[in-house]
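Section: Multi-chain targets

For targets with more than one molecule, the full set of components is provided together so that the structure can be written out for the assembly as a whole rather than chain by chain. Components appear in the order listed by the source. The example entry contains two components.
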Amino acid sequence: MENPNLNPNLNPNVVSIYAGNNCTGEVTLIPVMPMRPELAQAYIPYQIYSRIMPAQEALKKGTVFPELVK
Amino acid sequence: MWLYEKKTQYPINIKKPDPRMAMNILTQYGGPNGELAASLRYLSQRFSMPTKETKAILNDIGTEELAHLEMIGTMVHQLMDKVPPKELERLHVDTLYAVHGRAVYPSDSNGVPFTAAYIESMEDPIANLNENLAAEQKARATYEYLIRMADDPDVIDPLRFLREREVVHYQRFGEALRIVQEVMGSKKFY
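Its structure, encoded as tokens over all components, is:
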């Protein structure tokens, strides 16, 4: 069984960098899950880049990201 | 504007016609959870997205849905191609033939024509993105129904591909929602 703390896509403490504004260079950090979730909002974990599959396999599966094959 | 590539996003080469399956798949062409509705929904909503990235996500997915529309149209055409009208009558798909012949027309499987009432486009990006998350799940469920009814690998493989794309789009709309939430929450962006 995979340890969820070692999988960046499942660890809520991992922070993904999102370059929000190219003009000011200001960068917004988006954690995998919100630090302070609010009621009445829907949240999807932010994907962290891990690895991609070879092109032929990706075409067959429908995605290059193994963690999104569902 | 768009650049056109003269190939489908996933290869489609159906050797065995199956008019019943064509009629079932037709709903993903012009039905409520179909690719035309998806494309027009995202390409219309993109103008009111608050950031460049979220505009780009809707633009890219709306564009890809057009490629899916082409895939579905190709499948319907190949499944109906050259089937004699008497055979269509025997298979009880003759009512569609009476109206459109063997053409590909944007309707659902019952022949109900496409309508923009299937989609919404609001100024509020949170409302739009929640609609899009729901739309991707409805399309995924529809593809699962279609896969259960299909028995030809030439039909099942492209349907599986399209189903997986719905899963990926759900993730991307979820990330777009996170961006909008973070940006609107911090207000630093503007």
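Helices of chain B lie at 19-25, 27-30, 35-45, 52-80, 85-90, 94-100, 125-149, 153-186.
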